[in-house]
Amino acid sequence: MDELIASGALPGSHLVPTVRGELLARLGRRPEARAELELAARLCANQRERSVLLRKAAALG
Questions:
Q1: Residue 9 and residue 61: Cα distance in Å, rounded?
Q2: Residue 46: left (phi > 0), alpha (psi -120 to 50), or beta?
Q3: What pLDDT is recorded for position 2?
Q4: Which of 21, 28, 41, 59 is the most exposed, having the fewest neighbouring CB atoms within 10 Å of its CB?
């Protein structure tokens, strides 16, 4: 994941922080996961997807 981010292959895409947030949540790194999901929501153009991302972020505390 870090290599993908460093490569800049998907600049401005909400997909990278979404996946990173999900992985961080699974690792129990809740504050970092929440920040990534919030970033993904800001980058996401789709309102429904944005709502899901914000709900997931809020659930992390």
A1: 30
A2: beta
A3: 73
A4: 28
**CA distances to 3, 5, 17 from 8, in Å:** 9, 5, 12
Three-state DSSP at 31 gives helix
* Opening angle at CA 47, ends 4 and 3, nearest 5: 5
For residue 15, how far is the Cα from the chain centroid?
7
58 has a pLDDT exceeding 90: yes
Q: Which 8-state DSSP code applies to residue 14?
A: S
Alpha-carbon span 15 to 40, nearest angstrom: 7
Total domain count for the chain? 1
> Is the full-model pTM beyond 0.85?
yes
φ, ψ for residue 48, nearest 5 deg: -65, -45
Query: Which domain range does residue 31 map to?
Result: 2-59
